[in-house]
Design brief:
homodimer, alpha/beta, seven-stranded mixed β-sheet, two-stranded antiparallel ribbon, DNA-binding
DNA sequence: TAGATTGTTAATCGATTAACAATC
DNA sequence: TAGATTGTTAATCGATTAACAATC
């Protein structure tokens, strides 16, 4: 299963929810493709993996398709997520996830003792970093978001992996080294802006 | 020129600067590869495009290589960037770019009149959204960052493109439709976290 | 039915890696 | 020099798209 496919499924689901809000009942691959910015063949190919079939007459039934995608992507129960680093980026992420109604919940946020610790930020209790191991292990958290400074990224990853985290979103520009069994998503804002600037110059 | 190559060059430059801080004079492709998480062949292939040659004895001279990469990636003068949306994510980006010493500067930030407008956030003046056209056109800004809510993303993109922006970083989960000549970078944090959660579940 | 869309395979495309002669 | 690394091509790999019989 390709990483890109998983990402697109998440995107399709969001678009489908929008269509549902507009009181639409079904949708064709080309419409979904247009909105997601991919080809219709791609959409049909992606949707095959979630085990829901459309039909040539009416396309895909939106409600059933959302259910199938969610069934494929989501855990049957709430999945807890830990956030390391409650600076401005960490706060932004907390507020994005606060009550977003998915099965993903940031239940633990950590920062160095002096900082925002022992406070509550947009509904999430923020703890001193020293409690990381105990809380992550205690709650059985398997997903970690790293939003500390670049220099602290590797140390944060090491500590998370040590207590059982299997998947990490790295929001720093630093590349982190992890064992093969750990999944890493790199989300480097600075790099994206630099790349955007490069293309703006090229197209000028 | 592949988008991925541009991103990696930006990454190599950051790593090279780290190595320079450690008083190293030169570096081999495999060392750069290890730190960037790619193959040595990839590094050598990427470095060819910036027009700097290493040599079989001593590898790549760090100072000269940084200069070559910067010469390739950066504009000769300061490149101004506009930010739309000064919520928590917008503020996080502003603080990341405040005095980062590159040729990229966020010189204009916009938000709806009521919000943070007419204030100064981490060194950047924040203006009411109504002034967008005048300021972006006046300063000749070609790069825009969209950090508004999903529903407002398309409108923000349209307004930016209307006044000459050629490259956009879209930080919302919404996909935006743009003319062919405009470059878009999508940076969807929610999608990355969902994907990370999926893989955590798979590897458990 | 007629016609558009589906599921799915084959063809295409592009990016990554392996390999190696040239070279310091 | 000897040996490791470079620049660069060919081979591989994977992902995307084109195409089409099946189908509602």
């Amino acid at each position: 299963m390709s990483e890109k496919t998983i990402g697109r499924l998440s995107q399709y689901r969001r678009i489908l929810k929008e269509l549902l809000d507009q009181s639409l009942g079904n949708v064709y691959s080309h419409e979904l493709a247009r909105r997601a910015g991919v080809s219709a063949a791609q959409v049909r190919r992606d949707l095959m993996v979630v085990g829901y079939s459309g039909n040539p007459h009416s396309g895909y039934e939106i409600v059933a398709l959302i259910k199938s995608i969610s069934n494929f992507l989501d855990d049957s129960q709430v999945q807890r997520v830990a956030l390391i680093g409650v600076g401005s980026l960490g706060r932004a992420i907390l507020s994005q996830f606060a009550g977003n109604g998915t099965r993903l919940q940031i239940t633990a946020a950590f920062d160095t003792s002096g900082n925002a610790s022992s406070s509550v930020v947009t509904g999430c209790r923020c703890r001193p970093i020293e409690e990381l191991e105990q809380v992550v292990q205690g709650e059985g958290i398997k997903v970690g978001l790293i939003a500390v400074s670049s220099t602290e990224a590797q140390a944060a990853a090491d500590r998370l992996i040590e207590v059982g985290v299997l998947s990490i979103v790295n929001l720093t520009p630093a590349s982190i080294q992890v064992p093969d069994y750990v999944h890493v998503e790199n989300l480097d804002i600075t790099m994206s802006v630099e790349r955007a600037a490069f293309y703006a110059r090229q197209r000028d």
